Amino acid sequence: MTDSQTTTTTTGKIESLLEAHETLSASADPKPEDLPPHARVVVHTDVPYAPRCRFFPGKAKEMIGAILKEKLTGATYDADTAPMCVREITDAIKAKLKEMDLDRYKLVVQAVLGEQRGQGFQMSCRCFWDPNTDNYAHESFANDSIFCVAGAFAMYLY
User: Fold this and answer.
1) 57-156, superfamily in CATH?
2) Is the entire prediction scored with pTM above 0.90?
C-alpha cells in the first residue's frame, strides 16, 4: 500500500466517523448501540474509591473485649452449649461493628471457644487485602474454666 492510498483510506475513515457524529448529534438521545465503537465510553462518577468512614481496630478491640467479658464472665465450659455460645458472641460482635456505620465494608467475625485446662492455644489467619483500607482487630478472654479468642476483619469493597 502506498502513502497516497494510506492517506485516502485514513481520510475516508475520518469522514465516515464525522458523518456518524453529525447524524448522532442531530438526534436527541442516541442509544449506545447506535454509537460508533470508539464513542461507547461509559464514565462512572459515583463509584467511591476511598472509604468515607474507616475501620478503627482500637475501637473494635474495645467492643470485642466488652462483649467477651459480658458473655463469658462467670461462665463454665459445656461442650453441648459451646457452639450456641460462640454463635451468640460472633453475632453480637458483628451487630456492634455494624453500628460503626462502615459503608462498603465486608465484615467477617471469627471466634474460637474452648475448655481451659492449662494448655496453650494459637490462632492465625491469612488474607490478601489492601493495607490502606482493610484491617482487623482481635481480643481474647480466659477464666478458670473457659477461653475464647475472637477476631473481626473489615475489608473495603471497591
Assistant:
1) Tctex-1 (3.30.1140.40)
2) no
